[in-house]
């Protein structure tokens, strides 16, 4: 195995270690403070009230964690990758859901037990208090968002609809903060607790506003992105070339993606994550997308000169994460776009193998470019077509090993549909490819 330059590996490892320590310290430190606050408050009338109060503190804290994940902090993105962070966002969301359901349930049970009245009567009486009612509305919105985020429901929604529903999270935040201010005993017991909770929320909301609004506005004002060309690649795939000023200051890398908006052509809330399909430079960026939703289907109608608003770059699917020089790039369908851009990265060596999996030859978009790049680089290219079946299982471990006998000595990058990516990752585990050499772009952000 030929190792990559050790300074880069050492820097990346230190970054990951620091990020792990920072995340661990943040979570454990705040949970410890929350328990101290809980113990300092006068106990509730019974165990149900006590449990409800503690769950409320957990809920408030997990909401701040969710805000930090939505803020897309650069340190976490570089250390873990946006794909993994989006997975954390999903599980944090379901944690918030259960806490939002259990917290009011235990509180109502506690009051009902203390007053010796039916639970529904207690709930109705509490709902007549405005701060409590706002909290109940927030819980209802959380239930709606969580229900539509379940995989079976998510698959029935377009990305644009799913994203629009998630904008309700901001309404939940406002309602939740108001509820905490007026109903949270542990939040207002003394000056120290007020400083702590407001500091926590200020840091989270400050990170959100900075990362998702202020920085993107500054960057887009600086770079003034515009559509330079729209090139159909097939019946349902199109490439959009974007130009602007001083694009090298974006510090984008091959393999990364942006969140793209096209003001004036699409609604302001319509945003999609599209990978760069060519290595970025100081003059242009290129995205290539398949028509799977309203926004992506409308890209071929973009007028030349149309404004572009981009957030990013995001993602750790880059050669900066490599541990060794020999590389295997695996693409499926439109997942070829970040693979195509990686082929232009100067850091990629000639000892590279590319596997491109499509159902039909006509589905192999950008194939001509990939062939030219692999030929120029001296890399090997395998294009595999046909339906997966008994006689065509390229990612069955023995078949993958037959194509790439030295696979355990290579860094492997895979991007494609969920079924393909899952099959490749399962095969790599069976072939005992070290996990540090496996890099997958699952695009949980889009799905």
TrEMBL record:
Pfam families: FAD_binding_8, Ferric_reduct, NAD_binding_1. CDD domains: FNR_like_3. It is found in: Membrane. Its main location: membrane. Its cofactor is FAD. Keywords: 2Fe-2S, FAD, Flavoprotein, Iron, Iron-sulfur, Membrane, Metal-binding, Oxidoreductase, Transmembrane, Transmembrane helix. The chain crosses the membrane at residues 21-39, 51-71, 91-112, 132-152, 164-182, 194-215. SUPFAM superfamilies: Ferredoxin reductase-like, C-terminal NADP-linked domain, Riboflavin synthase domain-like. Residues 220-320 form the FAD-binding FR-type domain. It is a multi-pass membrane protein. It comes from the Bacteria. This is Oxidoreductase.
């Amino acid at each position: 195995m030929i190792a990559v330059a050790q300074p880069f590996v050492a820097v990346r490892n230190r970054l990951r270690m620091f990020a792990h320590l920072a995340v661990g310290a943040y979570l454990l430190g705040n949970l410890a403070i929350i328990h101290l606050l809980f113990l300092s408050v006068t106990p509730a009338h019974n165990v149900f009230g006590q449990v409800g109060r503690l769950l409320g503190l957990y809920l408030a804290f997990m909401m701040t964690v969710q805000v930090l994940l939505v803020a897309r902090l650069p340190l976490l993105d570089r250390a873990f990758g946006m794909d993994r962070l989006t997975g954390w966002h999903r599980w944090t969301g379901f944690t918030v859901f259960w806490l939002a359901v259990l917290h009011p349930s235990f509180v109502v049970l506690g009051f009902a037990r203390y007053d010796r009245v039916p639970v529904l009567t207690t709930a109705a009486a509490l709902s007549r208090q405005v701060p409590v009612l706002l909290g109940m509305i927030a819980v209802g919105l959380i239930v709606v968002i969580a229900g539509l985020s379940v995989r079976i429901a998510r698959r029935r929604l377009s990305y644009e609809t799913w994203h629009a529903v998630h904008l309700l999270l901001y309404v939940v935040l406002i309602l939740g903060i108001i509820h905490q201010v007026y109903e949270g005993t542990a939040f207002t017991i003394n000056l120290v607790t007020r400083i702590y909770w407001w500091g926590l929320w200020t840091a989270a909301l400050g990170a959100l506003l900075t990362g998702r609004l202020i920085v993107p506005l500054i960057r887009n004002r600086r770079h003034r992105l515009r559509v330079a060309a729209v090139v159909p690649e097939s019946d349902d795939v199109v490439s959009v070339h974007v130009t602007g000023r001083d694009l090298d200051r974006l510090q984008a890398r091959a393999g990364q993606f942006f969140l793209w908006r096209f003001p004036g052509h699409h609604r302001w809330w319509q945003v999609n994550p599209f990978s760069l399909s060519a290595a970025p430079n100081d003059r242009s960026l290129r995205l290539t997308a398949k028509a799977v939703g309203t926004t992506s289907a409308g890209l071929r109608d973009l007028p030349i000169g149309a404004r572009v608003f981009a957030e990013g770059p995001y993602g750790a699917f880059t050669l900066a994460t490599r541990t060794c020089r020999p590389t295997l790039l695996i693409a499926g369908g439109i997942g070829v776009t970040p693979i195509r851009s990686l082929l232009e990265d100067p850091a990629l060596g000639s000892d590279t193998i590319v596997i491109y999996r499509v159902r039909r030859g006509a589905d192999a978009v950008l194939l001509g470019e990939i062939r030219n790049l692999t030929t120029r680089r001296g890399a090997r290219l395998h294009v595999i077509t046909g339906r997966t079946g008994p006689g065509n299982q390229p990612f069955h471990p023995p078949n993958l090993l037959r194509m790439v006998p030295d696979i355990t000595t290579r860094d492997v990058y895979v991007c494609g549909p969920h079924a393909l990516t899952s099959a490749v990752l399962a095969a790599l585990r069976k072939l005992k490819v070290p996990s540090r050499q496996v890099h997958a772009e699952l695009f949980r952000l889009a799905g």
